[in-house]
Design goal:
Layout lengths: L7 E3 L2 E3 L3 E3 L15 H12 L4 E8 L17 H16 L3 E7 L15 E2 L23 E2 L2 H20 L4 E8 L2 H6 L14 H19 L5 E9 L10 H15 L3 E5 L15 H6 L5 E5 L7 H7 L4 E4 L1 H5 L3 H7 L17 H12 L1
Parallel strand pairs: 3-4, 3-12, 4-5, 5-8, 6-7, 8-9, 9-10, 10-11, 11-12
Antiparallel strand pairs: 1-2
The structure holds flavin mononucleotide (FMN).
Length: 366
């Protein structure tokens, strides 16, 4: 059996193999953000399907501006903690570990129960159109510029949500620093036009990210896995590139490590495809060269390339997104030498909800 199927120590977690379920938003919680049985069934299914580590969908962190989608789950109150605890228990019973992805939408804001307009580093809307998979909003709003108090409240929200995740029994935290959500907006020269200490130079643009990592680390203590997901691309702008290139990305990885992260999760268009402005390396390759961090790599991993990627990134976890949606038992199928399906996007139409997936599967079986 390949090395990727061997048990592995990742951060302080013992995992049965090196496959992780990539975080995937399914907007299927109760309207008040409480996780439900359908979600539990889904996550348990991925654990039974062989994924050693489950990363949850992006979960909102406060009752202010962090929620971005209707029916997105939160980690802000006791009912949500109880809902997640049931999911965590079912994943553990199936033999896998599970970390909570904590997310603040910032400008990528389609629906929020607590306020009707987004808060973001600057009054700059995302490029492109809102995601039809998650709502019917026709256009992005131009966000309100965050004050210092708003920024502090958002940092505090991450710390409280991290404590709630620990209370729910999660095995760790993944901070969502990728894909154009709030942390990524602070890093991005498209979104962040500030001229105060939160904007301008890379060190200033990094400040919010570093403060979130520090506050989450302080909230959960030293012996609890904390990591961060990093990308260049955003959900509506696949072409964005960090102007500081390879050295800049390396600096970001070192800064989050020094702030208390013990793992980094890179998401590239493809794990080995270069996209940095001045480099022939992918984000995964740059992060792999930084000492003192565990690594998760993501982007285009499938049944044909996983062995090469596992060999290229020794000890790293391989996070699988679309192939897992199409094959919740992707890992078991690989072990058994069974056929692996491609994702049929009709499964996520008209919205990417679990009930639409269930209806699609019923139609396939009929
Ligand atoms: C339906 C869907 C929902 C997603 N939701 C999230 C999310 O909540 N958080 C996140 O970091 N990435 C999210 N992603 C991105 C995936 O985690 C992953 O990075 C992407 O699908 C590329 O990996 P793949 O080539 O294995 O599919 C989502 C992707 C899809 C298809």
């Amino acid at each position: 059996m390949s090395d990727v199927m061997q048990s592995v120590r990742f951060s302080s977690l013992d995992l049965p193999n090196r496959f992780a379920l990539a975080p995937m938003t399914r907007t299927s919680a109760e309207p008040d953000g409480t996780p439900n049985d359908l979600m539990a069934e889904q996550y348990e299914g991925y654990a039974r399907g062989g994924f050693g580590l489950i990363i949850t969908e992006g979960t909102y962190t406060d009752n202010l501006a962090s929620q971005g989608y209707a029916n997105q789950p939160g980690l802000t109150n006791d009912a949500q903690v109880a809902g997640w605890r049931r999911i965590v228990e079912r994943v553990h019973q199936a033999g896998s570990k599970i970390v909570a992805q904590l997310m603040h939408a910032g400008a990528q804001f389609q629906a929020n129960r607590f306020q009707d307009h987004p808060l973001a580093p600057s009054a700059v809307a995302p490029k492109g159109a809102p995601l039809g998979l998650y709502g019917d909003q026709a256009a992005w709003q131009v966000p309100t510029i965050m004050t210092d108090d708003d920024i502090r409240a958002a940092i505090d929200g991450f710390a409280k949500a991290a404590s709630n995740a620990k209370r729910a029994g999660f095995d760790g935290i993944e901070i969502h620093g990728a894909n154009g959500y709030l942390l990524n907006q602070f890093l991005s020269t498209h979104f962040n036009r500030r001229e105060d200490t939160w904007g301008g130079s890379l060190e200033n643009r990094l400040r919010f990210v570093v403060e979130v990592v520090r506050s989450v680390r302080a909230a959960v203590g030293d012996d609890f896995p904390v990591g961060i997901r990093l990308s260049q691309a955003t959900v509506t702008d696949p072409d964005y590139q960090l102007p500081e290139g390879e050295a800049g990305f390396r600096r970001i990885v070192e800064a989050v490590r020094d702030a208390g992260a013990d793992f980094v999760h890179t998401t590239d268009g493809a794990v080995d495809r270069p996209h940095l402005v001045d480099s022939d390396q992918s984000l995964a390759s740059v992060a792999a060269g930084v000492d003192g961090l565990a690594l998760i790599v993501n982007g285009g991993i499938d049944e044909t390339n996983h062995m090469d990627i596992a060999a290229r990134f020794p000890g790293a976890l391989l996070a699988v997104g679309k192939k897992a949606l199409a094959n919740p038992d992707f890992v078991q199928r690989l072990k058994d030498g069974k056929e692996i399906a491609d994702l049929d996007f009709a499964m996520l139409q008209p919205k990417a909800t679990l009930s639409n997936e269930r209806a699609w599967r019923a139609r396939q079986g009929a």
